[in-house]
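Protocol step 4 of 6.
Sequence for DNA-directed RNA polymerases I, II, and III subunit RPABC1 (Recurvomyces mirabilis) entered exactly as in the expression construct, tag removed. Do not edit the line below.
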Amino acid sequence: MSEGTSQEQSRLWRILRTTKQMCYDRGYELTEEECNISLADFKLQYVDESGAPQRTRMAFTARPTPEMLKKYTPLPRPGNPEPSADIGIIHVEFASEPSIGIKHLKAFAQLLHEKNYHTGMYVTQAAPTSSALKIIPSILPTVMEIFREEDLLVNISRHELVPKHTLLSPEDKKRLLERYRLKETQLPRIRMDDPMARYLGLKRGQVVKIIRKSETAGRYASYRWVV
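Step 5 output, structure tokens:
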């Protein structure tokens, strides 16, 4: 086996691990074994006889845990006393084509629609064309996220300099605002395109708790409103 093939195996193994860890950290049902697959097991499952990794085999789906469902269920209102969770099964695919255009995104969106998946994550070798990205809003209500492979080589949430981010449930968000007598617009903000916001799949209007280490206080929490 060539050195290039071996490097590609190791590279895609790291990307798959980060992707599964990301879904687990969001609250999807994945086992620790799946999230920390060994390189040897990766080769057994996803590499063909010639030694080439097969991206099509790496696709997976995952259901939200009860805890995740709670975090994505709006508070009851007079017109909607029993709201349903705005989350569901996620389907993740790894594009085997080196470049991604409109037809690829449309085909992926069609699959999500046919299978009734709530969220689709498309991991691509290169950024899709600008014209392809423009069609994503028209694909709604399907939720589609696109990550480049190079952005998943390292799990940013595991870096020692990145503080722990935790999404608050609507109930916890309400309690926080009541405790400090604040409106959500008065909270510091975090953009949806922030790397950790993308990692956790945060949506506009949500609030995330960020726990930082402090030499004096040990740990302290701050809160950010997603915009």
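Step 6, annotate. The CA atoms of residues 103 and 132 lie 8 Å apart.
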